[in-house]
Amino acid sequence: MTRLTQTTQWQELKEYSNNLPHMRELFATDSARFDKMSLKACGLLLDYSKNRVNDDVLGKLFSLARGCELESRIRAMFAGDIINNTEKRAVLHTALRAPAGSVVNVDGVNVVPEVQATLAKIEAFVDSITSGKWRGYTGKAITDIVSIGIGGSFLGPKIVTQALRPYANGKLKCHFVANVDATSLVEKLKLVDPETTLFLMSSKSFGTQETLTNTLSARDWFLSTGATQADVAKHFAAVTSNVAKATDFGIDAENIFPMWDWVGGRYSLWSAIGLPIALMVGMDNYRALLAGARAMDEHFTSAPLEQNMPVIMGMLSVWYSNFFNAQSHVVLTYDHYLRGLPAYFQQLDMESNGKSVTLGGETVDHATGPVIWGGEGTNGQHAYHQLLHQGTALIPADFIMPLQSHNPLGEHHAQLASNCFGQTQALMQGRTFEEALAELASSKLSDAEKQLIARHKVMDGNKPSNTLLMDKLTPATLGALIALYEHRTFVQGIIWDINSFDQWGVELGKTLGNDVLARLGAAKEATELDASSNALINLFRQGHI
Ligand SMILES: O=P(O)(O)OC[C@H]1O[C@](O)(CO)[C@@H](O)[C@@H]1O
Known about the structure:
The protein is an alpha/beta fold. The protein folds into three domains: about 5-65 and about 305-430 and about 465-495, Rossmann fold (3-Layer(aba) Sandwich), CATH 3.40.50.10490; about 100-285, Glucose-6-phosphate isomerase like protein, domain 1 (Rossmann fold, 3-Layer(aba) Sandwich); about 505-540. The chain is built from 21 helices and 13 strands. The protein has helices at about 10-15, 25-30, 35, 55-65, 70-80, 110-130, 155-165, 180-190, 210-225, 245-250, 275-280, 285-300, 310-325, 340-355, 385-390, 410-430, 435-440, 445-455, 475-495, 505-520, 530-540; strands at about 40, 45, 105, 110, 145-150, 175, 195-200, 235-240, 255-260, 330-335, 370-375, 395-400, 465-470. It has a six-stranded mixed β-sheet with strand order 1-2-13-12-10-11, sandwiched between helices. Strands 6-5-7-8-9 form a five-stranded parallel β-sheet, with helices on both faces. A hairpin with a 2-residue loop joins β3 and β4 (about 110). The structure holds 6-O-phosphono-beta-D-fructofuranose (F6P). 6-O-phosphono-beta-D-fructofuranose binds near residues 151, 203 and 503. Keywords: Cytoplasm, Gluconeogenesis, Glycolysis, Isomerase. Catalyzes the reversible isomerization of glucose-6-phosphate to fructose-6-phosphate.
Protein backbone atom coordinates (compact mmCIF):
# COMPACT_ATOMS: atom_id res chain seq x y z
CA MET A 1 0.00 0.00 0.00
CA THR A 2 1.33 3.46 -0.96
CA ARG A 3 2.54 5.40 2.05
CA LEU A 4 0.41 8.48 2.78
CA THR A 5 3.26 10.87 2.04
CA GLN A 6 3.87 9.19 -1.33
CA THR A 7 0.29 9.56 -2.57
CA THR A 8 -0.47 11.88 -5.48
CA GLN A 9 -2.85 13.94 -3.34
CA TRP A 10 -0.13 14.48 -0.71
CA GLN A 11 2.44 15.53 -3.32
CA GLU A 12 -0.04 17.91 -4.96
CA LEU A 13 -0.95 19.46 -1.63
CA LYS A 14 2.73 19.99 -0.90
CA GLU A 15 2.99 21.89 -4.18
CA TYR A 16 0.00 24.06 -3.31
CA SER A 17 1.30 24.84 0.17
CA ASN A 18 4.25 26.70 -1.35
CA ASN A 19 2.28 28.67 -3.92
CA LEU A 20 -0.82 30.08 -2.23
CA PRO A 21 -1.49 33.85 -2.27
CA HIS A 22 -1.75 35.73 1.04
CA MET A 23 -5.25 35.52 2.54
CA ARG A 24 -5.57 39.29 2.02
CA GLU A 25 -5.45 38.62 -1.73
CA LEU A 26 -7.77 35.62 -1.51
CA PHE A 27 -10.39 37.85 0.15
CA ALA A 28 -9.72 40.78 -2.19
CA THR A 29 -10.31 38.64 -5.27
CA ASP A 30 -13.41 36.80 -4.05
CA SER A 31 -16.20 38.82 -2.42
CA ALA A 32 -18.18 35.61 -1.92
CA ARG A 33 -15.42 33.91 0.07
CA PHE A 34 -17.40 33.88 3.34
CA ASP A 35 -20.53 32.56 1.61
CA LYS A 36 -18.49 29.79 0.00
CA MET A 37 -16.46 28.92 3.10
CA SER A 38 -18.99 28.96 5.88
CA LEU A 39 -21.37 26.20 6.94
CA LYS A 40 -24.29 25.77 9.34
CA ALA A 41 -25.06 22.49 11.11
CA CYS A 42 -26.62 21.44 14.42
CA GLY A 43 -27.02 25.01 15.72
CA LEU A 44 -23.42 25.92 14.89
CA LEU A 45 -21.98 28.14 12.16
CA LEU A 46 -18.42 27.48 11.02
CA ASP A 47 -16.62 30.30 9.23
CA TYR A 48 -13.54 28.68 7.72
CA SER A 49 -12.88 31.44 5.16
CA LYS A 50 -9.90 32.79 7.12
CA ASN A 51 -7.79 29.78 6.17
CA ARG A 52 -4.91 29.35 3.74
CA VAL A 53 -7.06 27.53 1.22
CA ASN A 54 -8.72 28.04 -2.13
CA ASP A 55 -11.14 25.80 -4.00
CA ASP A 56 -8.28 23.73 -5.43
CA VAL A 57 -6.70 23.09 -2.05
CA LEU A 58 -10.02 22.17 -0.48
CA GLY A 59 -10.66 19.81 -3.39
CA LYS A 60 -7.28 18.15 -2.87
CA LEU A 61 -7.91 17.80 0.87
CA PHE A 62 -11.25 16.08 0.23
CA SER A 63 -9.56 13.92 -2.39
CA LEU A 64 -6.94 12.93 0.20
CA ALA A 65 -9.75 12.08 2.63
CA ARG A 66 -11.45 9.90 0.02
CA GLY A 67 -8.12 8.26 -0.75
CA CYS A 68 -7.99 7.31 2.93
CA GLU A 69 -11.52 5.86 2.64
CA LEU A 70 -12.80 8.26 5.27
CA GLU A 71 -16.48 7.68 4.50
CA SER A 72 -16.26 3.92 5.00
CA ARG A 73 -14.13 4.38 8.13
CA ILE A 74 -16.84 6.64 9.58
CA ARG A 75 -19.45 3.99 8.88
CA ALA A 76 -17.23 1.34 10.48
CA MET A 77 -16.95 3.29 13.73
CA PHE A 78 -20.70 3.87 14.02
CA ALA A 79 -21.38 0.23 13.16
CA GLY A 80 -19.32 -1.03 16.08
CA ASP A 81 -16.45 -2.50 14.10
CA ILE A 82 -13.33 -3.31 16.15
CA ILE A 83 -11.40 -0.19 15.09
CA ASN A 84 -9.37 0.08 18.29
CA ASN A 85 -7.13 -2.67 17.02
CA THR A 86 -4.60 -2.81 19.85
CA GLU A 87 -7.21 -3.26 22.58
CA LYS A 88 -9.55 -5.18 20.26
CA ARG A 89 -12.46 -2.90 21.07
CA ALA A 90 -15.22 -1.14 19.22
CA VAL A 91 -15.41 2.65 19.60
CA LEU A 92 -19.00 3.51 20.37
CA HIS A 93 -19.36 6.67 22.39
CA THR A 94 -21.89 7.47 19.66
CA ALA A 95 -24.10 4.59 20.86
CA LEU A 96 -24.46 6.42 24.20
CA ARG A 97 -26.50 9.11 22.46
CA ALA A 98 -28.21 6.89 19.86
CA PRO A 99 -32.00 7.11 19.92
CA ALA A 100 -33.83 4.49 21.98
CA GLY A 101 -34.84 1.73 19.60
CA SER A 102 -31.63 2.00 17.57
CA VAL A 103 -29.59 -1.10 16.90
CA VAL A 104 -25.83 -0.98 17.49
CA ASN A 105 -24.27 -4.44 17.79
CA VAL A 106 -21.12 -5.26 19.73
CA ASP A 107 -20.15 -8.95 19.41
CA GLY A 108 -23.61 -9.60 18.03
CA VAL A 109 -25.42 -8.00 20.96
CA ASN A 110 -27.42 -4.78 20.56
CA VAL A 111 -25.97 -2.47 23.23
CA VAL A 112 -28.60 0.27 22.97
CA PRO A 113 -31.10 -1.34 25.40
CA GLU A 114 -28.39 -1.48 28.08
CA VAL A 115 -27.43 2.13 27.36
CA GLN A 116 -31.07 3.15 27.72
CA ALA A 117 -31.45 1.11 30.90
CA THR A 118 -28.46 2.90 32.38
CA LEU A 119 -29.93 6.26 31.39
CA ALA A 120 -33.11 5.25 33.22
CA LYS A 121 -31.02 4.27 36.28
CA ILE A 122 -29.29 7.64 36.11
CA GLU A 123 -32.65 9.40 35.89
CA ALA A 124 -33.98 7.57 38.93
CA PHE A 125 -30.83 8.35 40.89
CA VAL A 126 -30.91 12.03 39.91
CA ASP A 127 -34.57 12.25 40.89
CA SER A 128 -33.94 10.57 44.22
CA ILE A 129 -31.07 12.89 45.09
CA THR A 130 -32.54 16.16 43.85
CA SER A 131 -36.04 15.50 45.25
CA GLY A 132 -34.65 14.84 48.70
CA LYS A 133 -35.98 11.29 48.76
CA TRP A 134 -32.42 10.00 49.21
CA ARG A 135 -31.43 10.48 52.80
CA GLY A 136 -27.99 10.31 54.42
CA TYR A 137 -27.17 8.28 57.53
CA THR A 138 -28.59 10.95 59.83
CA GLY A 139 -31.75 11.32 57.78
CA LYS A 140 -30.78 14.53 55.97
CA ALA A 141 -31.10 15.18 52.23
CA ILE A 142 -27.97 15.40 50.06
CA THR A 143 -26.71 18.93 49.41
CA ASP A 144 -23.21 18.32 48.03
CA ILE A 145 -21.69 15.94 45.51
CA VAL A 146 -17.95 15.23 45.63
CA SER A 147 -17.02 13.76 42.25
CA ILE A 148 -13.73 11.84 42.37
CA GLY A 149 -12.12 10.91 39.07
CA ILE A 150 -9.34 11.99 36.75
CA GLY A 151 -8.74 12.42 32.98
CA GLY A 152 -11.86 11.61 31.02
CA SER A 153 -13.57 10.62 34.27
CA PHE A 154 -13.15 14.20 35.48
CA LEU A 155 -12.73 16.69 32.65
CA GLY A 156 -16.01 16.02 30.87
CA PRO A 157 -18.27 16.33 33.94
CA LYS A 158 -16.29 19.27 35.27
CA ILE A 159 -16.20 21.29 32.06
CA VAL A 160 -19.82 20.62 31.10
CA THR A 161 -21.27 21.45 34.52
CA GLN A 162 -19.24 24.67 34.37
CA ALA A 163 -20.45 25.46 30.86
CA LEU A 164 -24.10 24.74 31.70
CA ARG A 165 -24.14 26.71 34.93
CA PRO A 166 -27.08 28.81 33.66
CA TYR A 167 -29.10 25.56 33.62
CA ALA A 168 -28.14 24.40 37.13
CA ASN A 169 -31.15 23.48 39.29
CA GLY A 170 -29.55 25.11 42.31
CA LYS A 171 -30.34 22.13 44.54
CA LEU A 172 -26.81 20.76 44.78
CA LYS A 173 -23.22 21.91 44.88
CA CYS A 174 -20.72 19.77 42.99
CA HIS A 175 -17.03 19.60 43.90
CA PHE A 176 -14.46 17.86 41.71
CA VAL A 177 -11.41 16.02 43.03
CA ALA A 178 -8.89 14.66 40.54
CA ASN A 179 -5.23 15.08 41.51
CA VAL A 180 -3.64 12.72 44.06
CA ASP A 181 -2.16 15.83 45.74
CA ALA A 182 -4.06 15.70 49.05
CA THR A 183 -4.74 19.41 48.78
CA SER A 184 -7.22 18.70 46.00
CA LEU A 185 -9.30 16.54 48.37
CA VAL A 186 -8.65 18.33 51.66
CA GLU A 187 -9.72 21.73 50.35
CA LYS A 188 -13.00 20.25 49.11
CA LEU A 189 -13.70 18.34 52.34
CA LYS A 190 -13.50 21.67 54.18
CA LEU A 191 -16.56 22.75 52.21
CA VAL A 192 -18.90 19.82 52.86
CA ASP A 193 -20.89 18.20 55.69
CA PRO A 194 -20.46 14.39 55.81
CA GLU A 195 -24.12 13.99 56.73
CA THR A 196 -25.31 15.64 53.50
CA THR A 197 -22.55 14.68 51.05
CA LEU A 198 -22.53 12.00 48.38
CA PHE A 199 -19.15 10.84 47.07
CA LEU A 200 -19.27 9.74 43.44
CA MET A 201 -16.23 7.71 42.42
CA SER A 202 -15.76 7.61 38.64
CA SER A 203 -13.21 5.26 37.17
CA LYS A 204 -13.71 3.15 34.09
CA SER A 205 -10.91 0.76 35.19
CA PHE A 206 -11.44 1.16 38.93
CA GLY A 207 -7.67 0.92 38.97
CA THR A 208 -6.41 4.48 38.64
CA GLN A 209 -4.12 5.27 41.56
CA GLU A 210 -5.26 8.88 42.04
CA THR A 211 -8.93 8.00 42.09
CA LEU A 212 -8.55 4.98 44.38
CA THR A 213 -6.36 6.91 46.84
CA ASN A 214 -8.73 9.87 46.91
CA THR A 215 -11.76 7.62 47.38
CA LEU A 216 -10.10 5.68 50.23
CA SER A 217 -9.12 8.94 51.94
CA ALA A 218 -12.61 10.34 51.44
CA ARG A 219 -14.03 7.20 53.05
CA ASP A 220 -11.55 7.47 55.94
CA TRP A 221 -12.61 11.10 56.45
CA PHE A 222 -16.28 10.13 56.31
CA LEU A 223 -15.78 7.40 58.94
CA SER A 224 -13.70 9.76 61.09
CA THR A 225 -16.65 12.10 61.46
CA GLY A 226 -18.82 9.59 63.32
CA ALA A 227 -20.32 7.56 60.48
CA THR A 228 -19.95 3.77 60.40
CA GLN A 229 -19.04 1.35 57.61
CA ALA A 230 -22.76 0.54 57.33
CA ASP A 231 -23.40 4.20 56.46
CA VAL A 232 -21.01 4.14 53.47
CA ALA A 233 -23.73 2.80 51.15
CA LYS A 234 -25.78 5.96 51.73
CA HIS A 235 -22.90 8.26 50.83
CA PHE A 236 -20.83 6.51 48.15
CA ALA A 237 -21.65 5.59 44.57
CA ALA A 238 -19.47 4.54 41.66
CA VAL A 239 -19.32 4.65 37.89
CA THR A 240 -17.11 1.92 36.46
CA SER A 241 -16.79 -0.90 33.98
CA ASN A 242 -15.24 -3.01 36.76
CA VAL A 243 -18.32 -3.68 38.93
CA ALA A 244 -16.62 -6.52 40.84
CA LYS A 245 -13.81 -4.25 42.08
CA ALA A 246 -16.28 -1.55 43.07
CA THR A 247 -18.32 -4.05 45.06
CA ASP A 248 -15.16 -5.34 46.74
CA PHE A 249 -14.37 -1.73 47.62
CA GLY A 250 -17.64 -1.55 49.57
CA ILE A 251 -19.84 0.34 47.17
CA ASP A 252 -23.41 -0.96 47.32
CA ALA A 253 -24.22 -2.80 44.07
CA GLU A 254 -27.36 -0.68 43.72
CA ASN A 255 -25.16 2.44 43.60
CA ILE A 256 -22.83 1.21 40.88
CA PHE A 257 -23.44 2.57 37.37
CA PRO A 258 -21.95 0.51 34.55
CA MET A 259 -19.85 1.71 31.66
CA TRP A 260 -18.43 -0.32 28.84
CA ASP A 261 -15.00 -1.04 27.37
CA TRP A 262 -16.18 0.30 24.00
CA VAL A 263 -16.30 3.80 25.48
CA GLY A 264 -12.93 5.49 25.77
CA GLY A 265 -12.36 7.57 28.91
CA ARG A 266 -11.95 10.80 26.98
CA TYR A 267 -15.20 10.08 25.12
CA SER A 268 -17.23 9.06 28.17
CA LEU A 269 -19.16 12.10 29.44
CA TRP A 270 -22.20 10.73 27.53
CA SER A 271 -22.12 7.63 29.79
CA ALA A 272 -22.78 7.51 33.54
CA ILE A 273 -19.48 9.39 33.88
CA GLY A 274 -21.76 12.32 33.08
CA LEU A 275 -23.76 11.76 36.30
CA PRO A 276 -22.52 15.02 37.89
CA ILE A 277 -23.87 16.87 34.84
CA ALA A 278 -27.31 15.27 35.18
CA LEU A 279 -27.32 15.94 38.93
CA MET A 280 -26.49 19.60 38.42
CA VAL A 281 -28.63 20.52 35.41
CA GLY A 282 -31.35 17.87 35.57
CA MET A 283 -32.16 14.97 33.29
CA ASP A 284 -33.99 17.01 30.64
CA ASN A 285 -30.95 19.18 30.04
CA TYR A 286 -28.64 16.17 30.15
CA ARG A 287 -30.78 14.47 27.51
CA ALA A 288 -30.67 17.71 25.47
CA LEU A 289 -26.88 17.57 25.65
CA LEU A 290 -26.97 14.00 24.32
CA ALA A 291 -29.41 15.04 21.59
CA GLY A 292 -27.10 17.84 20.49
CA ALA A 293 -24.27 15.34 20.12
CA ARG A 294 -26.60 12.96 18.27
CA ALA A 295 -27.47 15.73 15.81
CA MET A 296 -23.76 16.17 15.07
CA ASP A 297 -23.41 12.38 14.66
CA GLU A 298 -26.21 12.45 12.08
CA HIS A 299 -24.55 15.36 10.30
CA PHE A 300 -21.16 13.61 10.36
CA THR A 301 -22.54 10.37 8.94
CA SER A 302 -24.75 11.95 6.28
CA ALA A 303 -23.24 15.21 4.97
CA PRO A 304 -20.98 14.99 1.91
CA LEU A 305 -17.35 15.60 2.87
CA GLU A 306 -17.43 19.05 1.25
CA GLN A 307 -20.33 20.10 3.53
CA ASN A 308 -19.22 18.14 6.60
CA MET A 309 -18.17 20.30 9.55
CA PRO A 310 -15.94 17.75 11.38
CA VAL A 311 -14.35 16.73 8.08
CA ILE A 312 -13.58 20.33 7.09
CA MET A 313 -12.08 21.14 10.50
CA GLY A 314 -10.15 17.87 10.63
CA MET A 315 -8.72 18.25 7.13
CA LEU A 316 -7.73 21.88 7.78
CA SER A 317 -5.83 20.71 10.85
CA VAL A 318 -4.08 18.04 8.74
CA TRP A 319 -3.27 20.80 6.20
CA TYR A 320 -1.45 22.92 8.78
CA SER A 321 0.17 20.05 10.72
CA ASN A 322 1.55 18.30 7.66
CA PHE A 323 2.11 21.04 5.10
CA PHE A 324 2.96 24.08 7.23
CA ASN A 325 4.63 22.30 10.15
CA ALA A 326 2.16 23.76 12.65
CA GLN A 327 3.12 22.11 15.92
CA SER A 328 0.19 23.39 17.97
CA HIS A 329 -3.40 24.50 17.64
CA VAL A 330 -5.10 27.02 19.92
CA VAL A 331 -8.75 26.97 21.02
CA LEU A 332 -10.05 30.35 22.19
CA THR A 333 -13.47 30.39 23.83
CA TYR A 334 -14.99 33.84 23.90
CA ASP A 335 -17.42 32.86 26.65
CA HIS A 336 -16.61 32.63 30.37
CA TYR A 337 -18.79 29.54 30.80
CA LEU A 338 -16.65 27.78 28.16
CA ARG A 339 -13.34 28.67 29.79
CA GLY A 340 -12.60 25.02 30.55
CA LEU A 341 -13.32 23.71 27.06
CA PRO A 342 -9.75 24.07 25.69
CA ALA A 343 -8.48 21.76 28.45
CA TYR A 344 -11.17 19.24 27.57
CA PHE A 345 -10.27 19.35 23.86
CA GLN A 346 -6.61 19.07 24.88
CA GLN A 347 -7.12 15.65 26.45
CA LEU A 348 -9.55 14.58 23.74
CA ASP A 349 -7.14 15.35 20.91
CA MET A 350 -3.69 14.84 22.41
CA GLU A 351 -4.47 11.54 24.13
CA SER A 352 -6.13 10.36 20.90
CA ASN A 353 -3.66 11.56 18.27
CA GLY A 354 -0.39 11.82 20.19
CA LYS A 355 0.79 8.69 18.41
CA SER A 356 3.75 7.83 16.12
CA VAL A 357 2.99 4.42 14.65
CA THR A 358 0.29 3.47 12.17
CA LEU A 359 -2.42 0.91 12.85
CA GLY A 360 -0.10 -1.65 11.25
CA GLY A 361 2.77 -0.69 13.57
CA GLU A 362 4.88 1.26 11.07
CA THR A 363 6.62 4.41 12.29
CA VAL A 364 4.94 7.41 10.67
CA ASP A 365 7.03 9.64 8.37
CA HIS A 366 4.92 12.75 8.96
CA ALA A 367 3.60 14.80 11.86
CA THR A 368 0.54 13.58 13.76
CA GLY A 369 -1.41 15.20 16.62
CA PRO A 370 -0.48 18.83 17.40
CA VAL A 371 -0.33 20.32 20.88
CA ILE A 372 -3.80 21.57 21.74
CA TRP A 373 -3.97 24.51 24.11
CA GLY A 374 -5.99 27.65 24.69
CA GLY A 375 -8.13 29.61 27.07
CA GLU A 376 -10.89 32.14 27.33
CA GLY A 377 -11.09 35.32 25.31
CA THR A 378 -10.47 38.12 25.89
CA ASN A 379 -7.97 37.05 28.59
CA GLY A 380 -5.65 35.40 26.06
CA GLN A 381 -5.21 38.71 24.26
CA HIS A 382 -3.35 39.91 27.32
CA ALA A 383 -1.27 36.78 27.65
CA TYR A 384 -0.28 34.91 24.45
CA HIS A 385 -1.87 36.66 21.48
CA GLN A 386 1.39 38.60 20.97
CA LEU A 387 3.03 35.32 19.93
CA LEU A 388 0.06 34.38 17.77
CA HIS A 389 0.44 37.66 15.86
CA GLN A 390 4.21 38.19 15.74
CA GLY A 391 5.88 34.98 16.84
CA THR A 392 7.79 32.66 14.52
CA ALA A 393 5.40 29.71 14.98
CA LEU A 394 2.30 29.22 12.87
CA ILE A 395 -0.52 28.40 15.30
CA PRO A 396 -3.95 27.86 13.72
CA ALA A 397 -6.71 29.13 15.98
CA ASP A 398 -10.35 28.24 16.64
CA PHE A 399 -12.49 31.08 18.00
CA ILE A 400 -15.74 29.92 19.64
CA MET A 401 -18.46 32.38 20.65
CA PRO A 402 -22.22 32.45 21.32
CA LEU A 403 -23.93 35.43 19.68
CA GLN A 404 -26.21 35.89 22.69
CA SER A 405 -25.05 36.08 26.28
CA HIS A 406 -26.78 34.46 29.23
CA ASN A 407 -25.91 37.65 31.06
CA PRO A 408 -26.68 40.59 28.76
CA LEU A 409 -25.26 43.71 30.38
CA GLY A 410 -24.75 47.00 28.57
CA GLU A 411 -21.96 46.88 26.00
CA HIS A 412 -20.20 43.80 27.41
CA HIS A 413 -21.22 41.27 24.81
CA ALA A 414 -20.67 43.64 21.88
CA GLN A 415 -17.16 44.32 23.18
CA LEU A 416 -16.52 40.61 23.58
CA ALA A 417 -17.64 39.98 20.01
CA SER A 418 -15.63 42.94 18.67
CA ASN A 419 -12.51 41.49 20.26
CA CYS A 420 -13.21 38.01 18.93
CA PHE A 421 -13.86 39.15 15.37
CA GLY A 422 -11.11 41.79 15.47
CA GLN A 423 -8.54 39.19 16.46
CA THR A 424 -9.41 36.88 13.56
CA GLN A 425 -9.22 39.86 11.20
CA ALA A 426 -5.82 40.96 12.54
CA LEU A 427 -4.46 37.43 12.32
CA MET A 428 -5.60 37.22 8.72
CA GLN A 429 -4.59 40.62 7.36
CA GLY A 430 -1.67 41.55 9.58
CA ARG A 431 -0.06 44.94 9.14
CA THR A 432 2.43 45.81 6.34
CA PHE A 433 5.56 47.92 6.81
CA GLU A 434 3.97 50.67 4.73
CA GLU A 435 0.87 50.65 6.93
CA ALA A 436 2.99 50.71 10.07
CA LEU A 437 5.07 53.63 8.72
CA ALA A 438 1.93 55.55 7.76
CA GLU A 439 0.61 55.12 11.32
CA LEU A 440 3.81 56.77 12.59
CA ALA A 441 3.79 59.64 10.09
CA SER A 442 2.47 62.20 12.57
CA SER A 443 4.72 61.05 15.45
CA LYS A 444 7.62 63.20 16.61
CA LEU A 445 10.08 60.34 16.01
CA SER A 446 12.99 60.85 13.65
CA ASP A 447 12.75 59.16 10.25
CA ALA A 448 15.28 56.56 11.37
CA GLU A 449 13.24 55.84 14.52
CA LYS A 450 10.02 55.64 12.48
CA GLN A 451 11.65 53.09 10.17
CA LEU A 452 12.83 51.05 13.16
CA ILE A 453 9.54 51.12 15.05
CA ALA A 454 7.65 50.33 11.86
CA ARG A 455 9.77 47.22 11.44
CA HIS A 456 8.72 46.11 14.92
CA LYS A 457 5.07 46.82 14.19
CA VAL A 458 4.89 44.69 11.06
CA MET A 459 2.62 41.63 11.38
CA ASP A 460 2.80 39.12 8.53
CA GLY A 461 -0.81 38.10 8.93
CA ASN A 462 -1.92 35.12 6.87
CA LYS A 463 -2.48 33.39 10.23
CA PRO A 464 -5.38 30.95 9.85
CA SER A 465 -8.43 30.81 12.09
CA ASN A 466 -11.84 29.15 12.23
CA THR A 467 -14.73 30.97 13.89
CA LEU A 468 -17.50 28.85 15.40
CA LEU A 469 -20.68 30.68 16.35
CA MET A 470 -23.92 29.55 17.97
CA ASP A 471 -27.02 31.58 18.81
CA LYS A 472 -26.72 30.73 22.51
CA LEU A 473 -24.75 28.29 24.67
CA THR A 474 -27.35 25.63 25.46
CA PRO A 475 -27.13 21.90 26.31
CA ALA A 476 -27.91 21.12 22.66
CA THR A 477 -25.31 23.44 21.11
CA LEU A 478 -22.72 22.34 23.66
CA GLY A 479 -23.41 18.69 22.87
CA ALA A 480 -23.04 19.37 19.15
CA LEU A 481 -19.83 21.35 19.73
CA ILE A 482 -18.17 18.60 21.77
CA ALA A 483 -19.22 15.91 19.28
CA LEU A 484 -17.86 18.12 16.49
CA TYR A 485 -14.41 18.05 18.10
CA GLU A 486 -14.65 14.30 18.81
CA HIS A 487 -15.24 13.68 15.10
CA ARG A 488 -12.63 16.28 14.05
CA THR A 489 -10.14 14.23 16.08
CA PHE A 490 -11.35 11.01 14.45
CA VAL A 491 -10.93 12.45 10.93
CA GLN A 492 -7.28 13.32 11.58
CA GLY A 493 -6.58 9.88 13.00
CA ILE A 494 -8.00 8.25 9.87
CA ILE A 495 -5.84 10.36 7.55
CA TRP A 496 -2.75 9.52 9.61
CA ASP A 497 -3.83 5.85 9.86
CA ILE A 498 -3.16 5.83 13.62
CA ASN A 499 -5.18 4.34 16.47
CA SER A 500 -6.88 7.33 18.11
CA PHE A 501 -8.49 5.19 20.80
CA ASP A 502 -5.75 3.54 22.83
CA GLN A 503 -3.27 5.27 25.14
CA TRP A 504 -0.28 3.02 25.67
CA GLY A 505 1.89 6.09 26.19
CA VAL A 506 0.44 6.71 29.65
CA GLU A 507 1.33 3.20 30.93
CA LEU A 508 5.12 3.51 31.37
CA GLY A 509 4.91 6.59 33.61
CA LYS A 510 2.41 4.81 35.83
CA THR A 511 4.59 1.68 36.08
CA LEU A 512 7.77 3.59 36.85
CA GLY A 513 5.83 5.77 39.28
CA ASN A 514 4.78 2.70 41.25
CA ASP A 515 8.43 1.57 41.39
CA VAL A 516 9.51 5.02 42.63
CA LEU A 517 6.73 4.97 45.23
CA ALA A 518 8.19 1.76 46.66
CA ARG A 519 11.67 3.31 46.78
CA LEU A 520 10.39 6.44 48.51
CA GLY A 521 9.18 4.26 51.34
CA ALA A 522 12.07 1.76 51.34
CA ALA A 523 14.37 1.26 54.34
CA LYS A 524 17.48 2.21 52.37
CA GLU A 525 18.44 5.03 50.02
CA ALA A 526 17.83 4.72 46.29
CA THR A 527 21.01 3.75 44.44
CA GLU A 528 19.95 1.49 41.57
CA LEU A 529 18.33 3.99 39.23
CA ASP A 530 19.88 6.76 37.14
CA ALA A 531 21.72 9.41 39.17
CA SER A 532 18.91 11.95 38.80
CA SER A 533 16.11 9.62 39.88
CA ASN A 534 18.18 8.31 42.80
CA ALA A 535 18.93 11.87 43.92
CA LEU A 536 15.35 13.05 43.60
CA ILE A 537 14.06 10.06 45.57
CA ASN A 538 16.63 10.56 48.30
CA LEU A 539 15.87 14.29 48.52
CA PHE A 540 12.21 13.42 49.06
CA ARG A 541 13.19 10.88 51.70
CA GLN A 542 15.20 13.50 53.57
CA GLY A 543 12.44 16.06 53.13
CA HIS A 544 14.63 19.04 52.22
CA ILE A 545 17.01 20.16 49.42
O1 LIG B 1 -11.53 6.21 34.28
P1 LIG B 1 -10.20 5.61 34.69
O2 LIG B 1 -10.06 4.16 34.31
O3 LIG B 1 -9.91 5.87 36.14
O4 LIG B 1 -9.06 6.36 33.81
C1 LIG B 1 -8.90 7.74 34.01
C2 LIG B 1 -8.14 8.32 32.83
O5 LIG B 1 -6.83 7.73 32.72
C3 LIG B 1 -6.55 7.44 31.35
O6 LIG B 1 -6.74 6.08 31.14
C4 LIG B 1 -5.13 7.81 30.99
O7 LIG B 1 -4.97 9.18 31.12
C5 LIG B 1 -7.59 8.24 30.57
O8 LIG B 1 -7.79 7.76 29.27
C6 LIG B 1 -8.78 8.07 31.47
O9 LIG B 1 -9.82 8.98 31.18
